[in-house]
Amino acid sequence: MAQVAKEKPVTPVTKEKPVTPVAKEKPANTADQLMNAILSSQSKEIQELKEQNKLLIDQNKQKDDFLNIAVHELKSPLQPILLNAELAAKGMIDQTDALKEISDASNKVKDLMSVILDTSKIDREEFELNKSQICINNLLVEAKTMVDCSSEDTVPIVLETDGELFSFVDDVRLTQVFKNILDNAIKFTKKGLIKITSEINVRDQKIVIIFSDTGRGIPSKILPHVFEKYATDKTNNPNGTGLGLYVCKQIIDKHGGTIHAANNN
Q: What domains, with CATH codes, occur in the chain?
């Protein structure tokens, strides 16, 4: 009987899938990144230093200009004081007239020294107020009277008040603000009038005081900076110190109020 040979089962061969090579990223160059960061930081610091240096140069120039103006302003009233005293002593002019000239010039010196001292106190943060309950309109009348007495051949000052307006303020400092604003208005108003109004803002119950005049107005380049230190129009006011309105703003700010300037439309 014939035998049938059985074939051995064939074991299937499993083919491995080809492995796709994965590209490895190169490690970041830490040294380059650090150097770029350092250069960027140094560039910013250099720019800041340049800006600070420019600011210091501008401030030093402003201080030099102010010192020159202050010296000139002090010399201006001192000359008539000495001249009138000498002429009166020799009997060359009437003593009453001489005393008036000396008094006016002395007041100019006093005002200039006051604004310089006030600026110094503000810079050292030593500027304090002595507040009490005061009628604001009385201070306006006082400031107007002081200006009327010290100025001749000036435009009229019209005062329109709304009853008795009381507030807790430093009467000396607030009168100083009112007088300074009036002095500026007189200096630049050659015809027309100066008007002062005071009233209560019904909405927020704050006292609003407006000084207006018919003068030529504030130059557009000065207007945005008019309350900043040393801001003055050298063309129309070559001897101005640029400190008066700066001190005024500091006084008003210290009272918790606001002060603004605008030209007539």
A: 56-123 (1.10.287), 132-254 (3.30.565.10)
